[in-house]
Amino acid sequence: MAKMWAGRTSGETDSIADELNSSIGTDCRMYRQDIEGSRAHAAMLGKQGIILHEEAEELREGLKGILEDLESGTLDFDMSCEDIHMFVEQELTARLGDVGKKLHTARSRNDQVALDLRMYLRDEAAEIMKLIRELLEVLTRVAEENMKAVMPGYTHLQRAQPILFSHQILAYAMMLLRDAGRITDCVKRMNVSPIGSCALAGTTYDTDREFEAAELGFDSIAMNSIDGVSDRDFCLEMMSALSILMMHLSRFSEEIVLWSSWEFKFIELSDSYTTGSSIMPQKKNPDMAELIRGKTGRVYGDLMGLLTTFKGLPLAYNKDMQEDKQAVFDAVDTAELCLKVMIPMTGTMKVLPANMMKAAQSGFINATDLADYLVKKGMPFRSAYKISGQIVADCIEKGLVLETYPLESYRGWSELFEEDVYEDIGIVTCVEKRISKGGTSSVSVQEQIAWIGQQIKTVFG
């Protein structure tokens, strides 16, 4: 089949070259955006008198019919076409004749694909934001439902200090709010219309780029036509934001894997988000969490691949840029899928507070509170720190914990110890004493939940 760009060349390319050159298998997913952009372009051409008003309306109606037929399934993509743009124009010309050939006036595939991609990613960003909001709402609900669950907080994966499980969960909510902020900022810079830049130098026609941009919901137009067709920063920025989002999902997934193990047993995952072993009947594997953790590397790879593709490209458009879509589409698809699994997996997991408390009561995670007890009695912190460490060592040698260490033994280290030491170093007391903003006391955690709720309203509307 002759190519629509035939002229300077015969338009006849080797079949293997066609396979390398073709992108319709990837970019056909942008058919809605391509048709919507083309309808706005036709309206602009008619408004400016570049084509007759009646022709513009005929083009718009023809494009609407193609969209309806694609949506209903009565029209299939012609995979022999190079790309989605050529498919739509070919189908339009088949339906309208020479009028269909007028659609491409005052534009190029270079600015057309840049437009489609911005519109597509803008739509996908809205879907990802919706999913982030759902996960935030699940996390705050889980936090509210488990306000009395006390667990060990960890540093270096060693038990460190007692915290509320809700406090730990809300740390991921804070990360997701930052993810939402990054995507929101990305969309602001993405929402600039390149259409009208044409191949790279603009056009001789008296176009109205601002009208076309407004019709498509853009905030402004690209002010440099070369940049308009060659800019893919918005793809890289979106992929960077998604990489950070995936990193956060991966960290949470790692905790879920640990917490659901027999060694921790802080939570139990729903059967819907686990698998069994083909040989070991006792196994309940957290495969979905592991896959989310693993797919993070895939999104990183998409970003690094596209950064590498762009690092040496001269201006303006180069065919290398066709590689942008596979990478950014894969990053978007992967992030959306992982969010869609993480939301119900988190919402249905069973929290096991008794196991958390049992772990919190061992490991001497109230040792800092023991030192603070002495400080409040007037001892310098560094001296209190040393004595507390010596007491821990003595407890380990004698098979005791701080709560069962005899008062006379305490007083052997310092006369400042009184009977009230046991109340002061109780696990729940240790948690509730941490009243500083952002801390782990129930009062502080409730403030965090309320703050996150306000942020959700502000960020998501």
What would your notes on this structure say?
With 461 residues, the protein is mainly alpha-helical. The chain has three domains: 91 residues, Fumarase/aspartase (N-terminal domain) (Fumarase C, Chain B, domain 1, Orthogonal Bundle); 206 residues, Fumarase/aspartase (Central domain) (Fumarase C, Chain A, domain 2, Up-down Bundle); 87 residues, Ribonucleotide Reductase Protein R1, domain 1, CATH 1.10.40.30. Helices cover 62% and strands 5% of the residues. It contains 19 helices and six strands. The strands form three sheets. The chain has a two-stranded antiparallel sheet. Strands 3-4 form a two-stranded parallel ribbon. It is elongated, with a radius of gyration of 30 Å. It starts with 14 loop residues before the first helix and ends with a helix.
**CATH homology superfamily of the largest domain:** Fumarase/aspartase (Central domain)
CATH architecture of the largest domain: Up-down Bundle
Looking at CATH, which topology of the largest domain would you report? Answer: Fumarase C, Chain A, domain 2
Rounded to the nearest angstrom, the radius of gyration is 30 Å
Poorly predicted spans: none
Please indicate the count of domains: 3
Figure out the total of helices: 19
| Spatial arrangement of strands, main beta sheet | 1-2
Just give the CATH class of the largest domain: Mainly Alpha
DSSP strand count: 6
Biggest sheet layout: 2 strands, antiparallel
Outline type: elongated
TL;DR?
The chain is mainly alpha-helical and 461 residues long.
Indicate the topology.
Elements: H1 15-21, H2 24-27, H3 31-47, H4 53-72, H5 84-96, H6 109-145, E1 150-155, E2 158-164, H7 165-190, E3 192-193, H8 209-215, E4 220-221, H9 225-230, H10 233-259, E5 267-268, H11 287-310, H12 324-348, E6 350-351, H13 353-360, H14 367-376, H15 381-398, H16 407-413, H17 421-424, H18 427-432, H19 442-460
Parallel strand pairs: 3-4
Antiparallel strand pairs: 1-2, 5-6
Helix pairs in contact: 3-4, 3-6, 3-8, 4-5, 6-7, 6-12, 6-19, 7-10, 7-19, 10-11, 10-12, 11-12, 14-15
